[in-house]
Write the structure tokens for this entry.
Amino acid sequence: MSARSLSELLQQVRESLRASFPDAVWVVAEILEIHENRSGHCYLELIEKSEESDSILARVRGTIWSSRYRMLRPYFEAAANTRLKSGIKVLFRASVEFHAQFGFSLNITDLDPSYTLGDLARQKQEVIRKLREAGVMEMNKEIPFPGVPQTIAVISSETAAGFGDFMDSLLGNQYGFRFQAIHFQAVMQGEEAPSSIISAMDRIFESDTRFDCVALIRGGGSKADLECFNDYQLAYYITQFPLPVITGIGHERDESVADMVAARGFKTPTAVAGFLVDQLLAFEFRLGELDDKLSSAVNRIVQSHAARLEQYRRDLRHLTRRFLQGSSEQISHFGLLVDKQTRNLLTRKRDQLLLLETRTQLVDPATIMKRGYSMTLLDGKALKDTDGISRGAEVETRLYQGTLLSRITDIHPAKEEGEQKQKVPNLKETAHGKKETDAG
């Protein structure tokens, strides 16, 4: 048995392949990986997946030499409206190559962008179909939009021109409305964009600030730059987000899937800012209308109450006049009655005073002594009986006219115990002339 060397075997394989594929062939494959080295050569990892299980059925290396790559790349991206990147399907013309040291590979010499364009459209429709089947396409739109959206979470690249336009239009609006716009940095194009935007949305969700909505904005760019906004994971995440999302991705013609699932989708970041300003303007108009309605209602109430108050005033005037008239008649009657009773009272009091005056005159000691009575005093005190008087004491006897000074030579006390020692005349009875009682 004759043996071959490895190089001989591989050389035979190379010749067989060259004989089987003398000319370049058109091949459809998906780009799994793509790298560009310093020399400008492009190296690709190409695969084919099963439509049923998404498993890899075939894998091969591809190469686009720098001289060809410098022409193919800009042509492809301009025509297909997408970058030459991982995850897209391409239709390419390639020659079959086999090298004893590097193995099997495909040397790509041409690309058909129309196939990729159609495949991207198919992928976009597939993403939309999956979202519709999941029943989530309208979920973010169903979140009630705040009437006064003033606290905005802004997802964008800080260096993007669209971000600056958005902030200028929002914060410098002509109506002087105040907004709080907090920026969350994210990559806005390329393969990293979907995961970067989702990460920014996670930070918004975990923030302590209570946002009214999220603005996802990006300045203008090619269709290739905006392909990331058709990503299924990003679109699905937007549908599940608890705040309304507004997109302003900078496209003028095509609508991305992110635009379709967001609560509001606009062409530019400036349009997003205008929408937010319009929301506050509409709210101000509604306040104005409510103010007008309130003023009208208050005026109607005031007029109604004014009319009622005027009626009450007329009724009160009439009732007051009747009341005063009745009160005046009562007062006149009471005045006559009081006058009569006062005169009667004064007459009675005058008669009483005259009687008292007469009684007072009758009991006046001077009047009594004028009738012949006298008053005996010892040490300036009037004597009523003989108790406490001793012989030799000097007493004073006051007469109606004049005074007598005497010395006691003898004392005759009352004859019996309990008998009135010396009766004093009853001045009251004497005054009335009924009866006189002798002293002693």
